[in-house]
Amino acid sequence: MNIDDVRMREMVNNMKREIILKNHPYDIFLSTDNRYHTYVMVNDKRKPIAKSTKEKVEDALVQFYKENEAKTQSTLKTLYPEWLDYKLICTNSSNTVRRIDNDWNKYYVDTDIIEIPLAKLDYITVDKWAHSIVKERNLTQKQYRNMALIMRQVLLYAIDKGLIIESPYERIRLSGKIFAKTSKKQSSTQVFLTDEQPRIEQEAYAEFYTTGNPVSLAIPLAFQTGLRVGELVALQYSDIEGEYLHIQRMEVRIPHKDTDGWELSNTR
């Protein structure tokens, strides 16, 4: 930041200060206790401010009105990135945070509810939103819980920051009847039948002989050993000892968030 930027910021702050003090509805007066006094409205009640100097009272007023402005302007949209960063620091699973971010992009981005100031986000609005999104998206109970986690935890985060007093979401109760039913997947689509295994292995061997790419051999190796994908890709020639294969490491893909989105890094 150069000197001109600093001067411009100071000028803007001074202008904001003048506007705040000009619009303050109560006088600043020197009382018999030799302190300067004024009042502000908090929850429809008049709250006194008293300081040793008039300048300190003005500083307190500027701080109060700036904080109050932040409360009235905070929305799900403005608070979500801050909450997600907090979640990423405090959680042990970046995969969970990545799933949350995917849900945000899928269910929240470009919706009206994220633009409503949190101070005006009432129970009726949130209840209508919850019922509508379940019906419109045909969500199962699990999908809804995962999706609504964002609404619930961001509002609790807003309480902890002093932006709102209570969360309207805590009163939301949805009947189990409105959720989509989870259809059981056919076993034929989830497992390989005994007579299918030889044909799959033959295809893998044929691809290996055609291309010379040893990756194809991972399929019959997985069938014969029961290795998981992370264990397969982490194998090294040094793991082979005569007729024995030592499984001693696994590759894990860990997501990392930066300004451009999510990236995956491999660890073993």
In a few lines, what is going on in this structure?
By secondary structure, the protein is an alpha+beta fold. It is 50% helix and 13% strand. The strands form 3 sheets. It has a 3-stranded antiparallel β-sheet.
Q: Explain this structure to me?
A:
The structure is a single chain. By secondary structure, this protein is an alpha+beta fold. The protein folds into 3 domains: 3-73, no CATH class; 76-178, DNA polymerase, domain 1, CATH 1.10.150; 187-267, no CATH class. The chain is built from 9 helices and 7 strands; from the N terminus they run H-E-E-E-H-H-H-H-H-H-H-H-E-E-E-E. The chain has helices at residues 3-23, 54-73, 76-90, 94-108, 123-137, 141-160, 196-211, 218-225, 229-233; strands at 29-30, 36-42, 45-51, 240-241, 244-245, 252-258, 261-267. The strands form 3 sheets. A 3-stranded antiparallel β-sheet has the order 1-2-3. Strand 6 and strand 7 (261-267) form a beta hairpin. Helix 4 (94-108) crosses helix 6 and helix 7 packs antiparallel against helix 8. The longest helix is centred in the N-terminal third of the chain and has 21 residues, at 3-23. The relative contact order is 0.07. The model has no long low-confidence stretch (mean pLDDT 85).
Topology at a glance:
Layout: H1 3-23, E1 29-30, E2 36-42, E3 45-51, H2 54-73, H3 76-90, H4 94-108, H5 123-137, H6 141-160, H7 196-211, H8 218-225, H9 229-233, E4 240-241, E5 244-245, E6 252-258, E7 261-267
Antiparallel strand pairs: 1-2, 2-3, 4-5, 6-7
Helix pairs in contact: 3-6, 4-6, 7-8
